[in-house]
Amino acid sequence: MLTKILDWVIDVDVAATLAAYAAIESGRAAGCDCADCRNFVAVRSRVYPEAFVKFAHSAGIDLEREVELACSGLVGIGATEYTGLFHLVGRLVEGPADVEQMDSSSWRVLYRSLAPGFSVAAGFGQGALDKAFAGLPLVDVNWEVTTDWVIPDPPTPGIARLRGSQ
Ligand SMILES: [Zn+2]
User: Fold this and answer.
1) Max CA-CA distance within the chain?
2) Predicted confidence band at 165 (pLDDT cuts at 50, 70, 90)?
3) Is the pLDDT of residue 126 over 70?
4) Coil, strand, or helix at residue 73?
5) Which of 118, 121, 138 is nearest to 129 (CA)?
6) Does the pTM exceed 0.85?
7) Reduced to 3 states, what is the DSSP secondary structure of residue 21?
């Protein structure tokens, strides 16, 4: 099925995507006890804008099972920034570049705004981040959001930290 988010057109295998999410034991945040992840679980129901929720549901993504999550710490009083991604089983048909090479070893994601405080970038990514997706053709839907810090504990110290199976 062809689906679209901003200018990215993706040929998604919805049944295979649904099956892979059903095989994930838990989303990254639910599988971790750190403050960053517990805060994300607390705000997750309002992190994704309506346009992204509609896209995700039509494509077979389980929004409670993010395959990657990172927190940048506080970005203002009571505000924090997260990045994460969802895999789709399928292939990218067309769309703008999702990454830009900065130097020989670093890249940055070229997010585009979908809604206030929420941006996305879709591309081929680095392969399966959860064994439920191993061996499948994947498109990564990366997102970045600014949201609230609502739990009493402070964020985990340090710069952006990858949450994943690595
Ligand atoms: Zn965590």
Assistant:
1) 44
2) very low
3) yes
4) strand
5) 138
6) yes
7) helix
Domains: count for the chain: 1
The rounded Cα 11 to chain-centroid distance in angstroms is: 18
CA of 8 to the centre of ligand 1 (A): 30
Could you list the residue range(s) of the whole structural domain that residue 64 is in? 2-163
Compute the distance from residue 149 Cα to the ligand 1 centre, in Å.
Answer: 14
Ligand 1 centroid distance, CA of 11 (Å): 32
Non-local CB neighbours of 56 within 8 Å, separated by 6+ positions: 48, 63, 86
Q: Encode pLDDT of 129-157 as tens digits.
A: 999 999 999 999 999 999 999 999 988 87
Contact assessment for residue 123 and residue 98, using Cβ atoms and an 8 Å cutoff: yes
Expressed in angstroms and rounded, the spacing between residue 1 Cα and the centre of ligand 1 is: 34
How far away, in angstroms, is 91 Cα from ligand 1 center?
30
